Structure formats: structure tokens, C-alpha cells
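Hi P.,

Sorry for the delay on this. The queue was packed all week, but I finally got your sequence through. Input first:
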Amino acid sequence: MSKRAILALLMAGIVSAAPSARGQSQAGVSYAEVIASARRAAPDLRVAKAREAVARSEIRVARAYPNPSVAFGTSTQAARFSAAASIPLVVFGQRGAAEDASRADLVTVQVETEQAWSDVRVQASRAFIALWLAEQLAQERDRVDAIATDLERLVQGRVELGAAPELDRLRANAERLRADVDAQESRQNILAAGSELGRWIGRQGGASLRTRGGLAVPSTTPPLAALLAKVGANPAVRREQADARAAEARARREKALVRPLLTLDLGVDAMDPTLPGPNYHAQLGVEVPLFDRRRGLIEREHASAGAARARGDVAVAQLIADLSTAYRIFESMSARRQALEAGVIPAADAAAQATQESYALGRAPLLAVLDGFRASIDATISLRETEAARANAWADIERVVGAP
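Then the structure:
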């Protein structure tokens, strides 16, 4: 078999290997579908919404009015029948203050739900990107595996004809085994990434998931200053602000509970032989706040409000750092992607083509052809990894600025 015939067969194997790998990514879920499913079915988000239901019930608890107490009795020497009722009178704003504090706590929990969604969204985005990248890498490694298999077969034929040394067969076999292991690993990585994605969209057995469509990443981003202006609207910051307001509301509730509690006592005595008729009596009791039992509770709530504001300042500083880092990574990955697409990949393809021509002229060994194609495939893999890193950076940007 001539060198030109061997090269033709090798090129045919390379071309035929690529379409079968690409066909694997035609069916699956799109990025938009993943985000919609995560919003609807993510377990973490369901837990956050359940906490909202608990906080709403606390408002009804605070609104509850204390029950009256009723007593009945009898006597052998006085009234044969007596009845009394004690009715608490909460008239100095205690219930209203408690209800306001519970509403403020509900607002905090609602913002925590937004924060939970922000975290779920970025994790679902990262899981989608990881699955997309695993599929892309699997395609390229399947191509390498196909090329190495053809190479081993062709070199084996040349060795049998005496046109190549036994060492070439051993090297081709080692190359094929390594490519086969890499291809198997990449397929397992797809299953693992699918399982992780399924966890965020509420789908068990997510190993069967595949991506459809590309990554939802804009070509350019707004100026960094415009993005930094949105940091204050991040749920992590608003959560601490809401917590500070809730602590102040709880402090007002504790102050309201210091106000006197009135108790109206009503009673009647009947069938008393010493009295001409029933005896009705009433009295109004007033709780006297002589002992300052709530000063420590009030101070605690004011301290909690201060701590929440301090945490808010820390959150702002952390988000600014996260946004700046993600923004620079996005910009650098954008520049790297452009360099790979415009320079590196065309150069690697040209080098592979030049190696083919040198082999056809007998000026390069057959393995040099494989090396040229591996360099071209490595450049493509680098491009896919760069696109994934760029998408992850954009997901981080969206988390900081509060994507819907």
C-alpha cells in the first residue's frame, strides 16, 4: 500500500468520524428550558418558598387575640352560684406592633427566596455549561479515537508489508489505547454532568440529559461602571437591609409589650340568702410595668439591626469584588476566544495540512500526521473550554447584578 493511499484512507476516516459525534447533541434541553425548569422544580427553591409559608403564618399568630377566662363556683354559706369572666384588653398597640414585626420578618424571608433563586440560577447555568462542555470535549475525543484506530490499522498493514518497523505498530497501538480511554472517560463525564444538571431542574435520572442549542452569552457586556451601579439591588444586599428593618420592627414590638395590659373582670353572685337578689360586680385591672424586663430584648434587637447593616456592607464589598473578577475573566476569555478562532485554530489546521503534504512526499513520518491533527483538535478543545469559562463568568455577572 502506497503512502498516498494510506493518507487518503486516514483522511477518509477522519472526515467520517466527525459527523457521528456531532449528531449526539441534536436532542436535549435548551438553556432557556433549563432556567424555566429550575425556577419551577429546583428543590432548594421549594424549601425557600416553604419558609415563606411559615413566615406568613407568623402574621396570623401575631394577630391572635388572647382568650378570656371563665370561672364558676358555689358556696354553702353565701351565694349558691357564682360566675366570673376575665377579659384581656390589648388596647395600647401591642398586637399591631407584633403584627408589623411579623410582616417585616416575612419581607426578609421573601428576599431570602430571591437570593435562593439567584443561587439556584447560577448553579443551574453552571451545570448546563458543564454538560455542554462535556459533550463538546467528547466529540473531539471521539474524533481522536477514530483517527487513532485508523492509524493503528493502517500502520499494522504497513508493518505486515515490511514498509514500517515494528516500533511504529507499538506506538500506534499505545496511541489508540490512550485515545480510547480518553473517549470512554469523556462519555462518562457526560453522564455525570447530566446527573448534576438533573439535580437543579428536579429531574431524577438526569444522566440521559443532553443540551440543545448554544450557550446564552452576549457578545459584549455593558461598561463595568454600569454593572457596579446595580450591586445595591442584589438579593444578598437587600436581604441584610430587610433584616435590619425587621430587627427595628421587633424592637418596636418589645417596646409596645412594655405598655400596660388591661384586664376586665366581670362577675355575678346568685342565690345568696343574705342578699335580696343577684349581685353583679366588675373591676378593671392594670398591669404595672415596675420591673424593666424587656430592656435587654430591645437592646438585642437594635444590636441585631446594626449587625445586619454591617453584613450588608460586607456583602456589597464582596459583590463588587466578585463582579470585577467575573467581568475581567469575561473580557479575557472573549479576547482568548477571538484569538483562537482568528489565529490559533487556522494556524493549527494549516500546520496539519502541511504535515499531510510532507507525508505524501515522504518527508514526514505517519505519526507526524496524527500529531498535526491532535494539535488541531487540542486547539478546538481549548476554544470550547474558553467558551465555557466565558459563559461561567457571565453567569457570575448575572448573579451579582440580579438576573431575573
